[in-house]
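Lab manual, section 2.4: Encoding a predicted structure.

Procedure: take the sequence of the chain (124 residues), apply the prediction step described in section 2.3, and record the output as structure tokens. A sample record is shown.
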Amino acid sequence: MSSSLENPAVPDYPALVRFFLEPLLEAPDSLTVDCESMPNRNRVWVRVALAEGDRGRAVGRDGRTLQALRAVVGQAATVAGQRATVEVYGERSQSRGDGGDRAGRSPRRGPSSRSTPRPRRRDQ
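Recorded output:
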């Protein structure tokens, strides 16, 4: 299903995703990459399916690995004059805030969590 054989200017999206993800996975043989394109709209959908245990590795901490994968595939698509969408099956449960990585942990609080500092109390 590689479109790079038909048109050398179009990237081989499945090979690109495999190159990016396989080194991170415990079961790289379970990686399935499906690519669907709509030439008349210059759109490409890349769907990735993984073993249950490897989803967290593919998404990464706070979704950083998946974000990087989307940036790389998106940039390759832009160079080819296309727009790309990368979807990971089961990604919502891992990175969208309904459990995922941070289950059982309290929300982050940092120095910017409060807009104005509290005045200090003076002991009398």
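Check your result against the sample. The domain at 13-97 is CATH 3.30.300.20 (GMP Synthetase; Chain A, domain 3).
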